[in-house]
Amino acid sequence: MRLSKMAPMSLADDFARQDGRGRVRVMTAIVVFALAQTLFWLVLGVTERLSQPRALSQAQDITLVLSDADGGFGPGAKTVTAQRTHWPHYLYVDPERRPKGRFELRFDAPPTNEPIALYLNYTNTLGDIRLNGELLKARLDGNVWVALDVFAPVLIPLPAEALRARDNLIEIEATGAGRKLLAPFSIDRVAALQSPYQWGGFIATVLPLASVAIMVFTIILCLVTRWPKADAPWIRAFVALLAAWAVYNLLSLGLLSPLMPQSLFWRHAIHWALLYAFVFSFVRFVFSWTEAPRWATGIAAVVFLAFLIAAVAVHPLNDAFVPETGRRVSQEIRKILEHVAIIGAGAVMTALLLRDLTRRPGRLLESFLFLVGVTGVTVDAIDDRFSLHVPFMAEVPLTFSIGPACGLLLSLGMCAALARQAAEARHVVVNANAELAAKLAQKEEELADGYAQRNRIMRRAVVLEERQRIVRDMHDGIGGKLLGLKVQVRSGQMTPDAIEAELDDSITDMRLIVDSLDMADETLSVALRTFENRVRQQIEAAGCACDIDHRLDNATPNVGPRTTLQILRILQEAVANALRHGAPTSIRIESAGGDGHVTISVIDNGRGVPANAAPGRGLTNMRFRANAIGAHLAIDSGAHGSAVRLTVPARTPDGDDA
After folding, report:
1. Model confidence at 615, in pLDDT bands (50, 70, 90)?
2. Which of 261, 304, 356, 417 could form an SS bridge with 266, CB 3.0 to 4.6 Å?
């Protein structure tokens, strides 16, 4: 390739050679670039400020106790210091490769009566957390991404009874033989940490998954769209880029760990291969999108060669072949080559996008978003190697990966391109398609009516099927129970009181079944109010006050007779257990809805259940019934009483979310 025939043309040269219209385009490109940088750093600064606690630890080192060879912390344990790095996090590279470590955080309790908590930026590779020897298990609610908990910030309340005024000790167990990591942390009031915790969870988990979802959607959109032959090269490059980006995001979040080999050697090899595939796909897409000239292709070849050399120098692959001294040298070479490659690739892609803006100003929005994406990926890569801060905000380091958000922007950029092309095509054919659109709307309305009628028929069929199932339940359950009772009575094995109790249970169960059938077409709110009338008599007959607070409105969905029956059985068993074992003077039944769930609680002020008491058949049946309908049952019992809380997904009888 002879690069001398076509020297690189800078924006300044282009500006000098253009006429008035061309100069306007060059100025527009410069303004777009400035706006892209302003938007990127402004949004980055705001999100980092929102997601970082004000009291984030700035200590340069913390104490780390290394376990012995067996993973214990006995006489063979060793105390070292973990240093704060530019990522930022606290790191100790263990040359002895001990299986565990234990970070020690000492602090004095803040002078406040408000609850305080421990905030960790992430908990990946971390194990048990203890406060003054007490194991901390409870975390604040709100994180629904269970599979991603280790990558999201965590907020752990510190029990007031376990705190001391001075010299409190938090011990955080770290796993991993070679590297012991501790995320940035803060110990402060819960009220001060709640907002950073929620924003951090959004950035660390919700945003990457949303980015993957949008990228997959865009890939499908690109594949099903019939593109002109002239657009096919950059469309293929864009699909490859989004696919590599989505896979790399999932890998970074740990969601592909079950599919990865167990060998550390191959896990590192796959990680770096995907990383370089992603970078190569990005460069290839920008070159295809901008129809890059020969000089840019030559620079890209050099950059890609540097990446290949860096890939060979990656230390996990050299561990099996190169001695320690050689590995250190190869690591330094890899760092230098990666820096040159990252900065060079970012600069070339930015120049190509700006050049494309001067040639094709109609793609201004797409190029603007692509510029933001290139900036984000470049900054993300540089931040992995240097300590970067938001401009004019030196106290705010970059703590989260920017790549997922940039993938989202890039996908939206493609959606913007498709929207623009669709708008142009629609402007040409809108008048010719007006009559066809009206007829299509009429047919869609007819189909919608037919679909609604079909759904009503299906719901009624489901209700009938549930009724037949409950009738069988009455025959097999209550019938079998009464038959067994008859046999025991004949044999003289039961006392009159036991017979009366069994009959009462059977009558109560039959009434619940009848109520669930009678209310098959009613909402859960109506079913609970009917249950209230029955259970109130039972509670007050036992000499106990009954307080009922239902906050469900008539919009609460109909969950079907089978689910209703199981809910009523669980509540009946909770009330019976409270009266039978707790000796309360007051029982309160509450219900509330929200966030796609209905929560029903039975709370008493009795003596509670001892902590060492074995679970009886009643509690076992309650948990079995809750699992059968996909509900969650929580039982909290202490010296001041018990609370049974049942959380039921709000679903319609045919299983759809309400």
Report:
1. low
2. 261
CB-based contact 603:587 (threshold 8 Å)? yes
φ and ψ at residue 67, rounded to 5 degrees: -70, 170
CA distance 190 to 155: 8
Residues 81-93: b if buried by 16+ CB within 10 A, e if exposed: ebebeebbbbebe
CA triplet 434, 438, 443: central angle to 5 degrees?
145
CB atoms within 10 A of CB 558: 22
This prediction's pTM: 0.52
CA–CA separation, 504 vs 537, rounded Å? Answer: 14
Look up residue 469 and give its two tokens: 């199932």
- Residue 655: what pLDDT? 45
| Longest CA span, the chain | 111
pLDDT in tens, 205-248: 888 888 888 888 888 888 888 877 888 888 888 888 888 888 87
Within 8 A by CB and 6+ apart from 340, the residues are 303, 306
Q: Which of 80, 211, 203 is nearest to 143 (CA)?
A: 203
CB burial of 633-642 (b: ≥16 within 10 Å; e: otherwise) equals bebebeeebb
Q: How far apart are CA 78 and CA 277, in angstroms?
A: 41
- Mean pLDDT to the nearest integer, 175-191: 85
Crossing angle of helices 232-252 and 403-429, in 10° steps, is 150
Q: What gap in Å lies between CA 338 and CA 310, rounded to an integer?
A: 6
Which amino acid is present at 301? A
Q: What is the pLDDT of residues 460-488, one digit of tens each?
A: 776 676 666 666 666 555 665 665 666 66
Per-position DSSP letters for 518-541, written without gaps between them: HTTTS-HHHHHHHHHHHHHHHHHH
Query: Could you tell me whether strands 545-550 and 586-594 are parallel, antiparallel, or unpaired per DSSP bridges?
Result: parallel
69 CB neighbour count, 10 Å cutoff: 10
